[in-house]
Design goal:
By secondary structure, the chain is an alpha/beta fold. The protein is 44% helix and 22% strand. It contains 7 helices and 9 strands; from the N terminus they run E-H-E-E-E-H-E-E-H-E-H-E-H-H-E-H. The strands form 2 sheets. It has a 5-stranded parallel sheet with strand order 2-7-1-8-9. The chain has a 4-stranded mixed sheet with strand order 4-3-6-5. Strand 5 and strand 6 form a beta hairpin. The two termini are 12 Å apart. The model has no long low-confidence stretch (mean pLDDT 90).
Length: 187
């Protein structure tokens, strides 16, 4: 049995990564999702161990000290990290998608050059702003901070293997599924 491929998906806050990845996962039941650990509080509807492992700062720092992360970083005033053990376990079973920001993506690519980096972009800057304002779960301060960060993140897209526009969720998900299928066909 072949070991799975690792796909890293990034994009600015508000670009629709979570919604697109949910559609990708629904469409390909063989894919595994690598669950990151975070110190941020859960959003409404999020479940520990599904979207993220929600831990406090002390637990996160203990995981760092024990070398339990493939990568970790601070993003929007919270810590995020990829637990190595669960990622390796999921890769033994098949292809894995990892949803992380660019710093984390580049750190993983250094350690795992075989990883495929996919960057999701909005159809326009105006649409990104509209989506951020429309979420309804984000403060004005956080929206301002995320827009500032989004500018830098968008400048990183040239460092990715693929850039996919999220014009509609289904079309974006289909493009990502095509990338995943093409990688499997190459083996």
């Amino acid at each position: 049995m072949r070991k799975g491929n690792l796909f890293i998906v990034s994009g600015a806050s508000g670009v629709g990564k979570s919604t697109v990845l949910q559609k990708v996962m629904e469409s390909d039941k063989q894919l595994r999702f690598s669950v990151s650990a975070t110190t941020r509080p859960p959003r409404p509807g999020e479940t520990d161990g599904v979207e993220y492992y929600f831990v406090n700062a002390e637990q996160f720092n203990e995981m760092i000290a024990k070398g339990e992360f493939l990568e970790y970083n601070e993003h929007n005033k919270a810590m995020y990290g990829t637990p190595i053990a669960q990622l390796e376990e999921k890769l033994r079973d098949g292809d894995v998608i990892l949803d992380i920001e660019p710093y984390g993506a580049f750190a993983v690519k250094e350690k795992r050059p075989d990883a495929t980096l996919i960057f999701i972009v909005p159809p326009s800057q105006e649409e990104l702003e509209r989506r951020l304002w429309g979420r309804g779960d984000t403060s004005l301060e956080q929206i301002t901070m995320r827009l500032e960060r989004a500018k830098w993140e968008m400048e990183q897209q040239d460092r990715y293997d693929f850039v996919v526009v999220n014009d509609t969720v289904q079309e974006c998900a289909d493009r990502i599924l095509h990338i995943i299928a093409a990688k499997a066909d190459m083996e």
